[in-house]
Amino acid sequence: MEKFWFLVQAGEIHMDLSLPYPSKRAPVMARNIISTSQPLATQAGLQMLQAGGNAVDAALAAAITLTVVEPTGNGLGSDAFAIVHDGTKLHGLNASGRAPAAWTPERFAGQAQMPRNGWESVTVPGAVSAWVALSDRFGKLPFEQLFEPAIGYARNGFAVSPIIAGLWQSGAEQHKDQPGFREAFMPEGRAPKAGEIYRNENMARSLEAIAQSKGESFYRGELAEKMVAFAQEHDAALSLEDLAANAPDWTGTVAQDYRDVKAHEIPPNGQGIAALIALGILQHTDVAEHGPDSPEAIHLQIEAMKLALADVYANVGDPATMVVSSEQLLDPDYHAERAKLITHGLAGDPGHGLPKPSGTVYLCAADADGCMVSFIQSNYSGFGSGVVVPGTGISLQNRGSGFSLEPGHPNLVGPGKRPFHTIIPGFLTRAGQPLTALGVMGGPIQAQGHMQVVVRMVLYNQNPQAAIDAPRWRMMSGRSVAMETSFDPATIAQLRDWGHEISLNPPEAAFGFGGAQIVHRMDNGHYIAGSDPRKDGHAAGF
């Protein structure tokens, strides 16, 4: 009898949605292109490009759609950052929110660290303000049009994809008792399973209100009032004044030369500068003499990143209160001195620590007129704080957990301060011209991932898809390193002999290695894009 690979349950036929065999993706090439962490979001962006919009319109439509179809990493209560090359000039946008005015260090007295979940981890959400600012400055299409795909998926439903279903289940177990979570994200008393249809009419109405008011409802209108009323119900600090005071900042970028390119990141309060420090340190090593997957090359990159992270965790916070400047951290002479601390064949321990893995969405887009966008938004720990405002579908981030409670630290919690941020969009230019928009999602992997894909593309000339598919490692603390099982066993054995304490994880079993998207401009003016199978990454163009 012929065997059919379907699962029969309760009289229905269900397809097995697991992927038991390895597969290869080809990079996508086109004149107009977008790469995101979820296929429906990619399609939303592509619709805007085909409707006459530019790369910014595409990126925003995708980002807005991701709040619906990938709620495990972002939502209406997210923060966001962006780097945009408008064809002439590079721009950086910091749309991370600030602490409520009532958040003094005394409020958290007696606690060893900031709360990870609940209302006491919620800062002012900034993503909606990013959408408005980017659309106003660069967009071609009407703001409301950008919301049409997301509203459709929220109202009519979408089939939950397998990877997101797994993250949803994990998030539901963690947040099921947070205010408003069950109502919004456990409609049947549980997380939706892969292939099930999920709808959120409340979120559809909130998206309509944001679209019609150009964000005013969110920061100064009905949605703001609902957020604050729910905060007051739970004795939280968020106020109407906190929301109304929110404004994103056009910051420009900080940059580091690496071989023949210049790598760009958003300035602190984010961790992007760690990738730049590590690239600067690598300039003073012999990494170029070793192959991309050799133990020598991996060792040097790990050691450079250790030093970079030690600097960042000690010195980075809201730039208004940083003692050590970005310029000092990016000084080439300083990088040369730090490189001297790296020993061939011996793992070091500069004593840094890392935050826990988290959930984020990253996307990039480019158009035939030369506009390129690198965009990232996140609720931080998957569903963020777990708090969801009733009747709105607004899930609130937990970025307040990024603050320090150490007296005198530049990242010490304080009224109106921005916390240390993990989410970072990356960008490369060559001779002043836009070259690559790139990002790697997932909390502490991000700066590490930026460095890894930049080294692979710039030093070893790998294409975007190859750089994404390559195995990744992630620093934990001290000499501890998590590595994907796809690394050569001989490389792993050599690194262990050199003192690296390695734990092995398959990519599908640990989100800690992140997901990546890359769009790269080729010499002929077309683009080549890669997307990450570690998530539901998808690239498309025309």
Estimate the mean pLDDT confidence: 93
- Overall body shape: globular
DSSP summary, beta strand count: 23
What portion of residues belong to β-strands? 15-25%
Sum this structure up briefly.
The chain is an alpha+beta fold.
Description of the structure:
The structure is a single chain. The protein is an alpha+beta fold and 542 residues long. Helices cover 32% and strands 20% of the residues. The chain has a seven-stranded antiparallel sheet with strand order 3-22-21-17-16-11-10. A seven-stranded antiparallel sheet has the order 9-6-5-13-12-4-23, with helices on one face.
How is the secondary structure organized here?
Layout: E1 6-9, E2 12-15, E3 28-30, E4 33-36, H1 39-50, H2 55-69, E5 79-85, E6 90-95, H3 127-138, H4 148-156, E7 158-159, H5 162-175, H6 181-185, E8 197-198, H7 201-213, H8 216-220, H9 222-233, H10 240-244, E9 249-250, E10 254-258, E11 261-265, H11 272-282, H12 295-315, H13 326-329, H14 332-339, E12 359-366, E13 372-380, E14 388-389, E15 394-395, E16 426-430, E17 433-440, H15 445-459, H16 464-469, E18 473-475, E19 480-484, H17 489-497, E20 501-505, E21 516-521, E22 527-531, E23 538-541
Parallel strand pairs: 19-20
Antiparallel strand pairs: 1-2, 3-22, 4-12, 4-23, 5-6, 5-13, 6-9, 7-8, 10-11, 11-16, 12-13, 14-15, 16-17, 17-21, 18-19, 21-22
Helix pairs in contact: 1-2, 2-3, 2-4, 4-7, 11-12, 11-14, 11-15, 12-17
